[in-house]
Write a structure and sequence with these properties.
This protein is α/β, with parallel strands linked by helices and 361 residues long. The protein folds into two domains: 125 residues, Alpha-Beta Complex (Aspartate Aminotransferase, domain 1); 226 residues, Type I PLP-dependent aspartate aminotransferase-like (Major domain) (Aspartate Aminotransferase, domain 2, 3-Layer(aba) Sandwich), CATH 3.40.640.10. 38% of the residues lie in helices and 15% in strands. It has twelve helices and 13 strands. The strands form three sheets. A seven-stranded mixed β-sheet has the order 2-8-7-6-5-3-4, sandwiched between helices. The radius of gyration is 21 Å and the shape is globular. The chain starts with 13 loop residues before the first helix and ends with a helix. The structure holds pyridoxal-5'-phosphate. Pyridoxal-5'-phosphate (PLP) binds next to helix 4.
Length: 361
């Protein structure tokens, strides 16, 4: 029998029609420095083995829908209550939930993490994109203008910012939070400001966590992905309990699986190990930046994260040339033209990257 024919695309919602699937192509390579992952897997293997053994007998049951053990541990660490914490299948999922719960317009600076825009579009919400200034910092004047004009419900600020690597100035972030808080009498706009601290562990700047006490419209996003556990898919948000309560309504009941919950708990109990990996990445980032500064025809940008953005002549050619030698970095074409982004790897990986880059240039 012949299969019936139907133009599926014509059934799709208009804003999804114009969306393109997120390209996460797996390119085989020797040195993988394209996705801001941690290069260290030893401790994740250790914790996973332990948790798998411990949980092996309960896989016939659904995971704890409330991730109580994980949230309690995080609450202790952040000096908040468990009701101030919500768990997600990666922080991506929490971005999805935040936009589902509060809707748009959604305002964010560009260039930044692509998911704010992709998820807004998937959910049919209006996007307000404000260009960063020349130093990749927030253009507060333009943001405040846009706040007045568009009255956004949500403002996403990734600090340190992906893919530029810098932290935004704390005073500028505060100005934005203040402008849309109940304290502000200048314009009558109330929005939530989501400070995405995916890379905060690598930064010398302070977390915005303590400010949760002061601002009810502040949400902090964190994730285990960049500090060594990207495969687990565990992220969390910290905010006022009223915010958590609302977002929790749209959360799928079993969004973080039991093994991920268990491994996350084990890993977080072993802070020293996590910290030692972070320390080595920060010191390698320093070396990488210094070495890159000595290479002609490239301009590396200082970074507070676990990657370095750099401008390079013939960026497409260099990107391909590196890959030919087995070194995969991210081509930022279309986001910041002429730029590549390299994740800080192990000392050996970084040396291979530097050597290959120097050869190509
Ligand atoms: C990687 C990244 C995330 C997503 O993290 P997951 O927890 O893996 O979903 C969120 N925000 C920024 C800025 C990122 O770079």
């Amino acid at each position: 029998m012949k299969k019936t024919n139907i133009a599926i695309a014509s059934l799709v919602k208009p804003h999804v029609q114009s969306l393109r699937a997120y390209e996460a192509v797996e390119i085989p390579c020797r040195v993988k420095l394209d996705a801001n992952e941690s290069p260290y897997s030893a401790y994740s293997i250790q914790h996973t083995a332990f948790s798998v053994r411990k949980n092996f007998q309960t896989l016939n049951r659904y995971p704890d829908p409330e991730a109580k053990a994980l949230r309690k541990l995080l609450a202790n660490e952040f000096k908040v209550k468990p009701e101030n914490i919500l768990h997600g299948n990666g922080s991506d999922e929490l971005i999805y939930y935040l936009i589902t719960t509060f809707g748009g317009p959604v305002l964010y600076p560009v260039p930044t993490f692509s998911m704010y825009g992709i998820i807004s579009q998937a959910l049919g919400e209006k996007k307000i994109e404000i260009r960063l200034d020349k130093k990749f910092d927030l253009d507060v004047e333009k943001i405040l203008e846009a706040i007045k004009k568009y009255r956004p419900k949500l403002i996403f600020l990734s600090s340190p910012n992906n893919p530029t690597g810098n932290s935004f100035s704390s005073e500028k972030i505060l100005k934005v939070i203040d402008a849309v808080s109940s304290r502000c009498t200048q314009y009558d706009v109330r929005s939530l400001v989501v400070v995405d601290e995916a890379y905060q562990a690598f930064s010398s700047k302070k977390s915005f966590l303590p400010l949760l006490k002061k601002y009810k419209n502040l949400v902090i996003l964190k994730t285990l992905s960049k500090i060594g556990l990207a495969g687990l898919r565990v992220g969390f948000m910290t905010a006022d309990s009223e915010i958590i309560k609302e977002v929790n309504k749209v959360r799928l009941p079993f969004n973080v699986n039991s093994l991920s919950q268990a491994v996350a708990v084990e890993a977080l109990k072993d802070r020293r190990l996590l910290q030692s990996c972070i320390k080595s990445i920060v010191s390698e980032r320093k070396r990488l930046l210094n070495e890159m500064k000595k290479v002609g025809n490239i301009k590396p940008y200082p970074s507070d994260a676990n990657f370095i953005l750099f401008k390079v002549v013939n960026s497409d050619k260099i990107h391909k040339g590196l890959l030919k030698k087995g070194v995969l970095v991210r081509n930022m074409k279309g986001v910041i033209d002429g730029c590549l982004r390299v994740t800080v790897g192990t000392p050996e990986e970084n040396t291979i990257f530097l050597k290959t880059l120097k050869q190509l240039l």
